[in-house]
């Protein structure tokens, strides 16, 4: 199984031919096309958008608008104005919890999150629920790590105002059934918030078709730059949401006593935007679209299936989460009682990058009954050889720790 893209598309991978990069769920490497697009913006069209009455500023504004269009197309969102640029998934989810939550939650209301959330889709909801006197409820997980849909259907009531859930678990790779969750929440009129940090990089999102109220993603996990992300929302929900931050660009009129707001998307993007970030994200979207998201998903499925078979065949290895057929390109495991951090350090000696720890998902770790796991995650530049290197390193680590 060859990689889906040549390593030569990625400067860092081609200048480090022995690097086995298996931490794309944390952050993905960047193709030259993304770096070139950002550089080109700085070299040819750089100025503050929206503010200058001169051609260069108009070009910067135009590039920012074009980037929004490309991102909207990638996410399947027909209403470009409902694509809000943010700093990343954490920022997007905090915007919703703080701005929407503060305006809409009150005593007696309920917020539901699943037990597999990244802290970014857990803590903001927990905190706003505490602040507003609302109940914070955790939806149990099915055996495969997805939200237990029967339990969710039984839990929701007219008190439920929000159901927040991940598209794909960053620990287990389990893919949630977004449309069914939206349908269950819809029965009681609850708003749905989907953390797409691990969904958008790996599969076609189709925002309009999903029907979710809010979808959040990070550029850096989908070949784009760090410090950029999106919050995509349904127009009526975004329009009813008060601004998260106030300041430049997001206003229509500022009076001495009161201020009125600009229209979407500017209303939710206060201050000078990260235009280079948006341009980079758009280039990443174009790069992924050229590959085809179905091809990306199929590549990862094949690779993770192979990795699942090979890694779970190693004695004393426990792979967490669903079977190979049902997961995206993430493999979390523990090897006997070797601490995942020790494992990661040993693998690093062989130039293999994996993640170790609680993966910002302590509530899920408790449910799995472990303090930490090791996690290998795959993307378009990984191939079968990367899996073989991982397996050989794990076998070797076992020998080292057996002797110690
Ligand atoms: N949600 C999930 C599922 C994640 O995997 C991550 C990052 O690992 C985040 C949210 C937070 O993303 P960021 O750190 O880019 O804001």
- Give the % helix: 40-55%
- Written as H for each helix and E for each strand, in order along the chain, the element string is HEHHEHEHEHEHEHEEHEEHHEEHEEHEH
Strand adjacency order, main sheet: 2-8-7-6-5-3-4
Tell me the fraction of residues in β-strands, as a range.
Answer: 15-25%
Name the structural class.
alpha/beta
Low-confidence residue ranges: none
Q: Summarize the main sheet.
A: 7 strands, mixed
* Ligands, ions, cofactors: pyridoxal-5'-phosphate
**Rg estimate, integer Å:** 22 Å
The gross shape turns out to be globular
Overall pLDDT score: 96
- Quaternary status: single chain
Overall strand count: 15
- What is the straight-line distance between the termini? 36 Å
Number of helices: 14
